[in-house]
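Appendix B. Worked example

We walk through a single record from start to finish. Start with the input: the chain for Glucose 1-dehydrogenase, Exophiala sideris, length 267.
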Amino acid sequence: MAKLLEGKVAAITGGLTGIGRAIAIGFVRQGAKVAVNHLGQPAEEKHQRCLCKEVGSENNQDDFPLYFYAGDISDPDVAEAFLASTAQHFGHLDIVIANAGVAQFHDFLSTPDTYIQQHLHVNVCGAYYTVRAAGRIMKEQNTGGSIIGISSVSALTGSGALVHYTPTKAAVLNLMQSSAVALGPFGIRCNALLPGTIKTRLNVDDLAQNDKQKQIEQRTCLKRVGLPDDIAGPAVFLASDLSQYVTGAQLLVGKFQISFLREDRLR
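Next comes the structure step. The output line below is what the pipeline stores for this chain.
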């Protein structure tokens, strides 16, 4: 069976853990070469080794499908350099996933100003710089491309414990819709993935409090919280030619029942 991303090159911000990691693995399994951006912290070395092992490859292979690039994506120079380096390393750039993000729970009225600043810098500015850099490279290549922003269901519904977070995910959604208009003339598709509650290191502690995970499971249509792997398939679809006429779309992955729309949750 032909692989959906054979011959494609993808770049993923924040791709060592959680949703980004799952997408990276899914892309490699579908034939893509994948560049993974990360912060470059010493603790991340083990995540790199685990990711290489997961895709069945080693750094010394001639046809190694992974490329790692360290840097804070909220810095516009890092976003530009990461994608330019990816295109140079693999020869071209076809797919970009603006995934890097932060999420810290806190009561709204006592939230430190540093929280909103950090969330804006990483979640909004980081995504903006990434999408802009991707557009520049893809326009120059003149071969089209697919850009996917990782938003959240909370962009549509809000969350009382994440008032500093949910507006940033709404911004990512609108960024992809606006970018679809701006980059469409160059054959570049821009879409947003809106995960529901996905169990990652960002929310594992919160889900463990007061049986919150069980409460969420009861209120989801599929009666379970999602796992990072649940996002990989939809990402492959939006990255592949199966969605070649899909742009400016928002794909919700993990729907809640209507009665749950006002409750707190986190992708």
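Two observations about the output. The longest strand covers residues 188-195. The mean pLDDT is 89.
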